[in-house]
Amino acid sequence: MWSLFSRDPTSSFAYEIGEAVEHTRSVWKIHRGKKKQNGDEVSVFICEGRDGTTAQLDIAKAAVKRLKTLRHPCILTYIDSLENEKLVYLVTEPVTPLLTWLKDSALSPSHRTNAVSWGLLQVTKGLSFLNNDGKLIHYNVCGSSVFVTPGGEWKLGGVEYASSDSSMFPVKVLPELEVYNPPEKVNPSKMRTTTMWAADMWGLGCLIWEVFNGHLDESFSLKNTQKLPKNLIETYAKLVGTNPGARPNPRDVVEDLRKPGQFFRNDLIETLLFLEEIQLKDANEKHKFFANLTPKLENIPNYIATNKILPTVISAHEFSNVGSVVLSPLFKIGKLLDEAEYQRQILPTVVKLFSSSDRATRLKLLQQMESLVEYMDPKTVNDQVFPQLATGFSDSNPTIREQTVKSIMFLAPKLNYHNLNIEVLKHFARLQLKDEQGGIRTNTTVCLGKVAQYLHPDIRQKCLTSAFTRAMRDPFPPARIAGIMAIAATQQYYPLQEVVTKILPSLCHLTLDPEKSVRDAVFRVLKGFLSKVEKVSEDPSLKEVMEAEVKSAAATSQTTWTGWAVGAITSKFYKTSSGGAQPQKQTSTSSSGTVTPSTKTSSLASTPSQGRASSNTPTSAAPNEDDKSDYEDWENSEWQSMDDGLDTKPIQSRTALPKSTTVSEALADVGDMDGGDGWGDDTEEWGSLEDTQHGDSLGGGELEPESKFRSTASYNWESSGPAEDTDDFFSSLVSGNEGKSGSVSQRMTNMSLQSPTSGGWDDWDAKSPAESSNTGGNSKSDEQRRLREEKRLQRQKEIEAKRAARMGPMKLGAKKM
Fold first, then answer.
1. What are the tens digits of pLDDT across the range 312-341?
2. Domain tally for the chain?
3. H or E element: which one contains 17?
4. What distance in Å separates the CA atoms of residue 758 and residue 743, rounded to the nearest whole number?
5. Mean predicted lDDT score pLDDT of the chain
6. Distance CA 451, CA 557 (A)
């Protein structure tokens, strides 16, 4: 029983006491601590009796009693305490002594000045609360009485000597604290003019001096103001004046220093003061504040941004109708967090935002997908993100559709079988067939080529050929080039039998494409495929090596072939004004940068990439050094964004590939088909496509504007004749496909104006009806021959006149003389 009464009460203390923190000129020793129940961090102030006296214990107990009654944002927060005849424990929020914090912090000069201004403002507000509202005098304002929280907030503590009596100064038990006493303590005659705040304002002046100079050892050192900011010296001089009646009220100090150009006026203070009063602001004020917050973060220390601003930004978005303007500062601050903190603080908010109906919010999320996806686990991606994101494929806004397509490139490594191989391909098939924006059709092809490495081998073998050959028949030239380059970039996934029966015939059709940029691309790719087939012809044993990756589930990184991808806005190349006016000449440039997808493999990945390993096989032909620059430049550009607008500055055309005399040399020119993933620089001037619309398409007639084209979905992309292709896996993903529509030659004919005087390919060898008739008499033979000759000469003169007017290169469809 007696042991119960004699038990040490500290053994049941609810907090673990950790390492000590440097702290001087105080009756307290400070230790870091944690609450045993939940692990919350705290600070534990410990005061033990010394030299057999109880003076320090009495002072400590008085401080605990006083701190319990003070509740203010600028006053140190009391949590718990424990007292006995030998010691006193005081538990507060986690803090660091100010002078220790200033010595250990590694802030830039500008950040340090801003942080100090914010801290001194808080201390001054705390003194104003004590002097004006609480009618108390602190009597111990100095560097040892101020503490800093992890969020950068300065808290006023050290209330051991706080009193409401302004006529008598307390006796301090530590001699080193006497240096902070005001001059009126030793000159009682000046006490007649003293005020409630006079002693604390002297202490505030001492605190300001210590912040910029270190511990104050002698009172006369206060006259040295060399290290103080110039916009603070005037107020500082008033604080340390010998006349107590002339020292300003702390409320007036705040007002004076908050004026423009003064020490309490900067981006950090303006931001934090607004956040303190955000619940009182209207919607317009909140929107304006968050719209301007991102650039201000450059002037705010990182620890304040992550601990003070970030929680307020998240709360404002959840409970205020501020829209998408908070996302930019949210993502900027998020870059300062480690992975664990990012997943704890930002990711839950971001995942919820994907269900937002606000297009601006969705667009910002899609644009940040590359950085967001690395913090998401596959379960979150498949169960919460992708179902909401997939609605963007059918959004009526083209920008949302385009950004949704691009986001798949980053999500693909974490998508499960159903979402990637069924849902994504279903949406891609519909977009490639029916989307009205040429740029979106183009980027759909690009993205499919990028995610091909993550597709299941069986699905990949069924869909890639049909998808890319369909793209090669798109009316939009960049879409045709996308199909060509996608075929080249994924060449390791096609059996040689499919190459010679489906891919090469489709490529050959484009050798007579009306656009030279398309012809250039297809000739480069044809040379590579033919070289591959030629090697197998010379050594049939290589066929198995070349087809090793067809059924492989390995995820290989394709990073160099999609830089040329254009945005949907480039479809404006073929837009015409009302009244049949000619299309406006506009060019679109890709923004600089490199889009590099995540190289993480999907769950299906099990074997290394044959494309990378092939450099060790006899089939590998490394490109020459001079040729490398021709296709490494694919990485120098990025997806063209729809909302970037059109740049009227033409893009410099690429350097032509060196001419090759053999198929093997041609393969070296463009890079090895087994290992290379790009076919050369593709910075051709898309604006030059406009020049071909003025009377030089195919047979010399004018190319019809886009408004006269048939829709992409109306073409029979998969048939080269009347027979229906029943193996088109990609088309089967879209329900309700439109009917087939004739042969390739018929479709190409429909893309140009048919003029009786145009010099088309068929006109050169076609016979007139009179010449092919068997009923004409010999008497009319010479006359008909003469008329035919005159028509031929007239048609030839018209073609030459058009060519001379254009002063351009000879176009397809014109016969050489």
1. 888 887 777 777 888 889 889 988 988 888
2. 2
3. strand 15-21
4. 22
5. 74
6. 9
